[in-house]
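Appendix C reproduces, verbatim, an entry submitted by the partner laboratory led by Prof. M.T., so that reviewers can inspect both the input and the predicted structure.
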Amino acid sequence: MNLEAFVLGCGGMMPLPYRHLTSVLLRREGDLFLFDCGEGTQVSLRRLNLRWKKINAVFISHTHADHITGLPGLLMLSSQVDRDEPLYIYGPPKTAEYVETSRKVLDMYINYPIIVKEITEPGIVHSGPDYYIRAFPLYHTKTCVGYTLEELDRPGEFNPEKAKALNVPVGPLWSKLQNGESVESADGKTINPEQVLGEKRSGRKVSYVTDSLYMPSIAEEVKGSDLLFCEGMFESGLEDTAREKKHMTAVQAATIARDADVKKMALIHYSPRYTDQELKILLSEAKNVFAETVLSKDRMIFPVLYRD
């Protein structure tokens, strides 16, 4: 099953001609999940030719303008096509007020259900048959949450030789065993999946963290992520500024990635004080702590592969 992350914007505070505001879209087969929706999100959606009308849910970290002001346009855009499926919007308190006020003031024509769910405590906020999306607290100047998408463990690898030895005919019964169902062998015995499957294999995990003061507890929340998007707004020389504004430096983001044993970290949500050329300062500092760090850039695509 394919899982891809699309960076729709990587900037913080204000949009720049070459850097949209922070937003990441995860595509997991037919499901599309949008994390934050800064100004200009629609532009990147169109430039990447993503099927925006198929977005299942939007996850807002907090209600600062650079993370949410693209949402009204997205809601109106989705009304330009026939849509029966509801759009779920998750976020901290005031998310519902922002959506409702925008609808009234802009006199939006909406032809599909919008279901807003405010997050008041950590835990699972959205789920499907084989995955869930969990929210956890961050520490910013407004109530803010981070998110992880986590897949459930997958069945172990199917062993055809064991199935043959147990007299299970090749065909549909093999598929049933692979799907976790017991079957009857050719000689009338009940064969359970664990008799022909190896050890369970882990699913994938993608985490999204912005904006927050550095807290060691974040590493526990994102532990084992295959891909971590984490804000690295400032260089280490501006740590006092980061602390004052409740943001992180690139080194602090890398410390979280290292302590959480993530596979790869993509820095995101840069201060507009840095040109694209100057972002190498942040990258260099982060890589000194966590080597598997990359700079996210607008419209970059990150495939998320299984570890085994």
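The mean pLDDT is 91. Additional entries are available on request from the coordinating office.
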